[in-house]
Amino acid sequence: MLSSTARRSLRGWMVSPGDTGWDVFSLDYHVDGPIATVFTRECMSHYLRVFNFLWRAKRMEYILTDIRKGHMCNAKLLRSMPEFSRVLHQCHILASEMVHFIHQMQYYITFEVLECSWDELWNRVQQAQDLDHIIAAHEAFLDTITSRCLLDNNSRVLLNQLRAVFDQIIELQNAQDAMYRAALEELQRRLQFEEKKKQREIEGPVGSDCGRGRGGEQEDPRIPGLHTKNVLQLQILTHFYQGVVQQFLVLLTTSSDESLQFLSFRLDFNEHYKAREPRLRVSLGSRGRRSSHT
What UniProt keywords are attached to this protein's entry (predicted)? Predict the structure, then answer.
């Protein structure tokens, strides 16, 4: 029914310097005819906000997939540089934490919010006696998905905190790309250095002094402090990311929505953050006692 009275189109937002396709792309619906009585302009603006939220979450999944691919590809190339094994391991651990977070958020949005809300809407529409009942059911559906996707006015702090988590995922991608570029450049220098060294050994003492320092000593192709800089950068990024997630969990546990409260359980499945944050121990423990009396 909707497909015959609605037209899909792509909407491009105003482009700012540094924006990518992910930042300016949006899917828009143009509704006319009798169905516009239910899908009003205000309703469609809610759908647009939900789509943009889902699109941003999907972008995080795409970025993390790209991070994992980069790790698998470059780990083999950098095998000859064992000093980078620690920083590669740190990247892998942090990316795994982020993958768990995004997967749990997507499960919550897809099944607990969208699927459950749609099932409830369908049941209410089936029982509707007139158009007013259908409109009321649809408005209730929109209110539910808007609030549980953290898009209502009461969830602004939570949404800002979630966006801060998303920002850290982008930061990891940028940091890892920069690290790989620097590591691969150094690997190339080392390979060239070894090639020149072999060439000098073949040519003997009458060969060229290319690749030697001013005093005739061989130049070290390694960049001083590069490994230490990468390790420190990842440690700072990990600390900041975990701090943002920790605050997000605290906000979830104090929410009046039980679905958001239980989301905090899944995000902190191994109680890593609970052990670090006293407010989470109090919130989770008190909620457990309340639920045991019901």
Answer: Cytoplasm, Cytoskeleton, Microtubule
